[in-house]
Design goal:
By secondary structure, the protein is an alpha+beta fold. It has two domains: 65 residues, Orthogonal Bundle (434 Repressor (Amino-terminal Domain)), CATH 1.10.260.40; 60 residues, Cyanate Lyase, Chain: A, domain 2 (2-Layer Sandwich), CATH 3.30.1160.10. The chain is 50% helix and 18% strand. The protein has six helices and two strands; from the N terminus they run ααααααββ. The protein has a two-stranded antiparallel ribbon.
Length: 149
């Protein structure tokens, strides 16, 4: 018996890996974009009945799993709204306190866009300090301007 949508997501990911499929191939079966189809397979969108049945056939899912694919999901990829792991929570706190400052300064310097987390690098070093060693993190992400279309 399936008790939540996350279990179906795990089934889909396991079957996708076992079959060596790409998300674009899944999208062809679904009949939607790869972005939407991927989000739906990962539990962030609801499939209609024909789409759910097609995904079920592709991944060998049970009728129960296919029914779960048609339920409007609770969206969000983190298990909790606020991270509970102490280290991750401090990063969350950093963004809450300094996020608007970073946004303003990046926009002032570069214009309207984002810092990529794909074309990205990070360097983490221990910084000795007599009052207690510090964590020194340098992040570098490509600036991606929003385009008009």
């Amino acid at each position: 018996m399936i008790s939540n949508r996350e279990q179906v997501t795990e089934m889909i990911i396991a079957a996708k890996v076992a079959k060596g499929l790409k998300w674009s191939e899944v999208a062809e079966v679904v009949g939607q974009s790869k972005e939407w189809s991927t989000a739906a397979c990962l539990g962030q969108m609801a499939f209609d009945k024909p789409q759910a049945e097609a995904v079920g056939d592709l991944f060998g899912l049970s009728d129960e799993a296919v029914a779960w694919l048609q339920i409007v999901p609770y969206k969000g990829s983190l298990p909790t709204a606020v991270p509970t792991d102490p280290l991750i929570y401090r990063w969350y706190e950093l963004v809450n306190v300094y996020g608007t400052t970073l946004k303003e300064l990046i926009h002032e310097e570069f214009g309207d866009g984002i810092m990529s987390a794909i074309d990205f690098s990070m360097d983490l070093q221990r910084e000795p300090d007599p009052k207690g060693d510090r964590v020194h993190v340098v992040m570098s992400g490509k600036f991606l301007p929003y385009k008009t279309y």
